Amino acid sequence: MDRAEIASLRSRRNGLNRGRWWGEEGVPDALPTRRLHLIGVGLPKTGTTSLAHLFQPFRWGDEFLFAESIERLIAWREGRLDRDGMRRWLALRSEAGMLELDSSSFNHYFLGILAELHPSARFVYTRRDAVSWADSFLNMVLRHGTYLRGRPWPEWQIALGRLMAPSLDPGQFSSPAHLYLSLRPLAEELLGFYARETARIEAALPPERSLVIPTEELSASLDTLAEFAGVPRSALNAAGSHANRGQNKIPLVAALPDLPQLLKQNGLEAARVWR
C-alpha cells in the first residue's frame, strides 16, 4: 500500500467530530502484529463509544477516520464508488489504524466487506431496543441543536443522518417544541431504518466469530467480552463501560400515542420501558 497515503491518514485530523484513536500523538515506525482484532458493528447510540473506551489499554479506535469513511459510504450508496473501491478504502483504513479494537457507529454498513477483508477478526454487535435507540439518537441531536458547537453541521454528517431518517434537518432541532412538529415522520423513518438495518446486520454476522451484547448489559458483560477477545478481564478499562451516555433525555418517540402501531408496522417487538 502507498506508505505516504497511510502516513497522511495517520496525521492529526482537524474539524468537528473527527473521531479518536490510539495514535493521535504519533505512531511508531514499526508496529507489532495485532494481539487481537475486534470490530464493533452496532448502530450509533448502542454503546460503540463505550466499547472503544473499554479497550483503551490496546490499540483502540472510536470513529477512526469518521468523515473520510462517511464521504465514501455516501459515494458508495449513490453509485459514485463501486464495491471494490469501498473495499480498497476499508483496507487502507485498516492498515493506517492497525486497530486492535475498531469500534465505529458506521462499521455496520460495511459488515459484509469487513468479514471478507478480515477473516480472523471477531465482531461485537451491541444491540439496543428500537424505542430507546430512536429516543437516544434524537436527544443527542437535540442537545447540539441547529448548530454543532457553534458551527453549521458538516454536510457529511447530515448525509449520514439522512441514511437513517431522510427528512432529518438540523433546523428541526432548535428546541424541543420545534422538534415535536417533525417528530412523527422522523420516528417513522428511524424505526423503519432500525428494523431493516438490524435485520441485515444479524443476517450478515459470521456466527462463529460474533458476540451480541444488549447495550444495557454491556457493563455486566466484561467477563464474556474479555473471554471473547482472548484477554484477561483485568486488561479492560472497566470505567469506560458507559462512556458517552446521554444526560437529561426526554421521551420523544416513546411518548407518541400511536407508537404500538408504528412498532407493529415495522415488525418490531413491543416497546420497552423508556429509559
What attributes characterize this protein structure?
275 residues; alpha/beta; Rossmann fold; two-stranded antiparallel ribbon; 8 strands; globular; disordered C terminus
Structure characterization notes:
The protein has one domain (3-265): 3-Layer(aba) Sandwich (Rossmann fold). Helix 1 (3-10) packs across helix 4 and helix 3 runs antiparallel to helix 4. The longest helix has 29 residues, at 176-204. The protein is built from ten helices and eight strands. Residues 271-275 have low confidence and may be disordered. Helix content is 43%, strand content 9%. The N and C termini lie far apart (46 Å). The protein has 275 residues and is of the alpha/beta class. The strands form two sheets. A six-stranded mixed β-sheet has the order 1-3-4-2-5-8, covered by helices on one side. Strands 6-7 form a two-stranded antiparallel ribbon.
Brief synopsis:
This protein is an alpha/beta fold. It has ten helices and eight strands.
For the record, the count of structural domains works out to 1
N- to C-terminal distance: 46 Å
Mean pLDDT: 93
Named at the architecture level, the CATH assignment is 3-Layer(aba) Sandwich
User: Count the helices. How many?
Assistant: 10
How many β-strand runs?
A: 8
